[in-house]
Amino acid sequence: MDKRFVLALFLTSLVVIATPLLFPSSRRVSGPLPVSGDSILREISPIDTVQETISSAPRTIPEVSTVVPRSSISTPVDTTKISGGNADFRFSNLGARLLSAELHHFRSYRPGKEIIALRGATDPLVWYRLLDASGDTIRLDSMAFERSETPSGITYRTRTAIGIVVIEYSVITDSYMVRVTGHIEAQTEPGTLLVSLPGGIRSEEADTLDDREHLAFAVKTRRDNARRVQFKDLDPGESDTTPGPVIWAASKNKYFLTALLAPAGGEAFNAVLITGGTRTAKSAIRADIMVARTLALGQPFSFEVYAGPQEWKRLHALGRDFENVNPYGGFMQGLIQPFATMVMRVLLWMRETFKISYGWVLVLFGIMVRIITWPLNQSAMKTSLRMQRIQPQLAVVQQKYKNNQEKQREEIMQVYREHGMTPFSPLMGCLPMLLPMPVLFALFFVFQNTIEFRGVPFLWLPDISLHDPLYIIPLVMGISMYALSWIGMRNAPPNPQAKMMGYFLPVMMTVLFWRFASGLNLYYTIQNIAALPQQWLIARDRGKPPLVTNMPATPARR
Question: What residues contact residue 47 under an 8 Å CB cut-off, 6+ apart?
Answer without folding.
Answer: 31, 32, 33, 239, 241, 273
